[in-house]
Write a structure and sequence with these properties.
The chain has about 80 residues and is mainly α. It has two domains: about 50 residues, no CATH class; about 30 residues. The protein contains four helices and no strands.
Length: about 80
């Protein structure tokens, strides 16, 4: 795969796009919303909507990790019984 640096950079800068066909803007908008949702942009925008103190971020992330760990423990518990 021989691609020079300029081609790679231009592909990266391009971002998400949707073609509008037959003047069907509604369909294109739905596709764009779906792409944004799949990329996690909506979740990221909501997360960054308000400032969150670093201590609150740590607390939230620790709670999420604990929840994942407990879920994994429950899953493993069922295997061993």
């Amino acid at each position: 795969m021989n691609r020079n640096r300029n081609e790679f950079d231009s592909d990266r800068k391009r971002g998400l796009y949707v073609e509008v066909r037959n003047n069907d803007v509604g369909r294109a908008l739905r596709k764009l919303k779906k792409l944004c949702n799949n990329e996690g942009m909506v979740k990221d925008m909501r997360k960054n909507e308000f400032y969150e103190k670093p201590s609150v971020v740590k607390k939230r992330e620790k709670a999420q990790a604990r929840k994942r760990w407990l879920k994994l423990q429950e899953k493993n518990k069922e295997k061993w019984q």
